[in-house]
């Protein structure tokens, strides 16, 4: 209890920090929403992570592509790519573990590389790159794993409970922004493909005096016979006037 006019400063400070974090995350969501594309969104996420999560010196973002392949798509420094490549090379590490849905670990903290026993091969490589601690968060929406946000420091014990708390909130906002950007990109690609196939159908309809359905069937047949994506067949026809590439 406060006496002689004193206020409960720890509680007040705690509320102030929470208010500041809420404002920061709100601004983050608004800023990421305004990014023009997926890559710009990813770049915005890693840049904001360095400024938001306590203890962070570098940040990187791994993206799951096709549910199998993992690729580092955004970094704040080249050393992040080198650390991630070390994980890919040795097949172990906190980021890969965070992406493993079987383990269901959505947060992985690595406080001291010199004392690390879970991923000894990776820890040795990280130390060589002067990365001494890490914190990784799985990015997911409705059980769909999008990737991992990975934070790095050259200091041992750089990440504490506050880092993990703030990072979890940050990762949740980042996942929503990332998912939204990917969805919009897929819609843009779908519309572009529809227009492209429409152009190709129009060429065939005029050339062969066939219906739209018959023109589409010709495109599908050419795709199957040449084992070529339908979009590529359509693009080739629009560009060259030929239904399929000539075989050598």
TrEMBL record:
Leader sequence segment: none
InterPro entries named in the record: ANTAR (IPR005561), CheY-like_superfamily (IPR011006), GAF (IPR003018), GAF-like_dom_sf (IPR029016), GAF_ANTAR (IPR012074), WH-like_DNA-bd_sf (IPR036388)
ANTAR domain ranges (all copies): 177-238
PROSITE patterns, A to Z: ANTAR
UniProt keyword list: Kinase, Transcription, Transcription regulation, Transferase
Gene Ontology MF term list: kinase activity; RNA binding
Name of the protein described by the UniProt record: GAF domain-containing protein
